[in-house]
Amino acid sequence: MLPYFTIPPLALGGLTVYPFAVCLLLGWVASGVVGAALAVQRGRPVAPAAAFFAMPLVGIPFGHVLQVLAFHPEDLTNPAALLAVTTGFLGIGVVASTLGMGALVASIFARDRFWPTLDAVVGGQLALWWFYRLGCTIVHDHPGTVSRFPLAVQGICESGGFRKTYTYPGDACHDLGMYEWLAAGACIAAVAVLRLRKAPDGLFLAVPLLGYPVTRWALYALDPMIPGTGYLVGEGAVLALGMAVAVALIRVRTRAASAPPTPR
Question: What is the pTM of this model?
Fold first, then answer.
């Protein structure tokens, strides 16, 4: 088991800097930098770099609205709650809306280079995901069930912000945020392998379509606060749809890459 670890907030004069906020900011910057860099490295025309930096600005608020819908529908009439994005957001909403905006950007600014541009969007999205869950790892806001698993963290079972409805003082618990952070790293490694093997354009998208919903669904088995049935069904539908789209994408892109050039 791992001992408890964290990074405390840093007081700078009258300003308090929270580690999760720093990670979120780094994720936003990394999303834009990695996305733009991947597009340039692949030798493809790319939408203005500002578009890559703007994607999380759409994804994170949309994910927060989904968080309110799923867990706090009573706040829908409270404008302050809807605007307070730092109070939490549903990861699936961030992923879906960011990728969706990326696809829109690619279709508008790079119609003839849609797949390479979307690959760059995926790279930026994975960077955002990695830093986002790094913040969760630092603050331990997603404690799971009690465990003696080697990666379980001691002293986090009573943490979790709005999840303070159960307490296991002194025990070690699964750190679901840390597990998802590791999964994000694995997805980044998978994209790096695809890039090194010069995979057909567009195959990067298969990684989050498979990796994200599979990871989320697997972690439910370790969550002491299983969401409502409707939410589980929704995530299951995302898992099934993501796998179906990923399989179709792999078939289409590999066939396109292996097909002989069309004579003109």
Answer: 0.76
